UniProtKB/TrEMBL annotation:
InterPro entries given in the database record: DUF1272
Domain of life: Bacteria
Organism: Qipengyuania profundimaris
Name of the protein in its database record: DUF1272 domain-containing protein
Taxonomic lineage from the root: Bacteria, Pseudomonadati, Pseudomonadota, Alphaproteobacteria, Sphingomonadales
A Pfam family assignment: DUF1272
């Protein structure tokens, strides 16, 4: 099963494209930008898990395994 590659930061709404670095996820894929991850001390506010660098996904691979389009920011 592939990562969802959620498109935005759950805390501030910043766009986080699947092919770009700078996204951080916990083990259940809660997703945050680098600035919010740092502000959260690399700890997920939803589940308490550790926030880690999310790997990138190439544009070519996204054709086969598309990134999620479902936004999570509710600000």
């Amino acid at each position: 099963m592939a990562l969802e590659m959620r498109p935005d930061c759950e805390r501030c709404g910043t766009d986080l494209p699947a092919e770009a670095p700078g996204a951080f996820i916990c083990s259940v894929e809660c997703t945050f930008c680098a600035e919010c991850s740092e502000a959260l001390d690399d700890r997920c506010p939803n589940c308490g898990g550790e926030l880690m660098d999310r790997p990138t996904r190439s544009k070519a691979l996204q054709e086969k395994l598309p990134a999620s389009q479902e936004r999570r920011f509710n600000g």
